[in-house]
Amino acid sequence: SSRTQHSYRRKLVRNGEKKQLVICIEGNIASGKTTCLEHFSKTSDIEVMTEPVSKWRNVQGHNPLGLMYQDPSRWGLTLQTYVQLTMLDRHLSTITAPVRMMERSIYSAKYIFVENLYRSGKMPDVDFAVLSEWFEWIIRNIHIPVDLIVYLQTTPQICYERLKERCREEEKMIPMEYLEAVHQLYEDWLINKTSFKVPAPVLVIPADHDLPKMIRQYEENKEKILLGRN
Ligand code: DCP
Asked: Ligand 1 pocket test: which of 28, 40, 51, 167 has the largest number of ligand atoms within 8 Å of its C-beta?
């Protein structure tokens, strides 16, 4: 429609004015991504996007996140298809500030979570094949800009403790082994660089520390992050 065209043109013009930076915050479940985003949301010139987890818990009255934890083999594809859609939607939405910070990315959805379901034998081959074809099509045909990945590096034990404290209903049954598997996938992707293509430079921030120390580290790294450098 002409309306869509109009908004698309506006986006092109806006992007043409000045390079906008996109920074993805990555890390294990309960690694502190939300706290990091909250901290930077107080900075002017930064637009913060948290993970669309509320959508994953309620799509037209259904809870694919809860279903996935109850029966991953049956519902893994359902959740991850929806995660992929919501992530793509976020990546493509119009940036309204010089710097965008977002929680996770379409890349970690595939390289960490889909991969984990598949490798642990909880996703049927055909589901993995269909999701992989969708993902490959998307990244081949749609430009998804990412300038910097900030990796909040934790030990799985600390995440496990934080998870217990937070008590999100769906996450009650997450075992330590799950967090260890997600951790290893993150390490191989972003540190060892032995698994999948890394779409941007990586800035590693040790994230086992308590909140005051984390805030100090965010302040120390602020310049780098705002310039999109590792
Ligand atoms: N999840 C998933 N598949 C994905 C992405 C996330 O199954 N592709 C799950 C893992 C968590 C829930 O969704 O149970 C929320 O994701 P996060 O752990 O990233 O969000 P948190 O709020 O835990 O992050 P943090 O505690 O670091 O702020």
From this structure: 51
Q: What count of Cα atoms within 13 Å lies in the side-chain half-sphere of residue 89?
A: 10
pLDDT tens by residue, the chain, 230 residues:
444 444 444 444 444 556 899 999 999 999 999 999 999 999 889 999 987 899 999 999 999 999 999 999 999 999 999 999 999 999 999 999 999 999 999 999 999 999 999 999 999 999 999 999 999 999 999 999 999 999 999 999 999 999 999 888 888 889 999 999 999 999 999 999 999 999 999 999 999 999 999 999 999 999 888 888 88
> With a 6 A CB cut-off, is 29 part of the ligand 1 pocket?
yes
Which residue from 24, 29, 39 has its CB within 8 A of the most atoms of ligand 1, so it is best to mutate?
29
Residue 37 Cα: closest atom of ligand 1: 28
For the chain, list the domains and their CATH numbers: 15-227 (3.40.50.300)
Q: Has 133 been annotated as catalytic?
A: no
What ipTM was reported for this prediction?
A: 0.87
Strand partners, 70: none
Which atom of ligand 1 has the smallest separation from the CA of 83? 8
Is residue 109 lining ligand 1, measured as CB closer than 6 Å?
Answer: yes
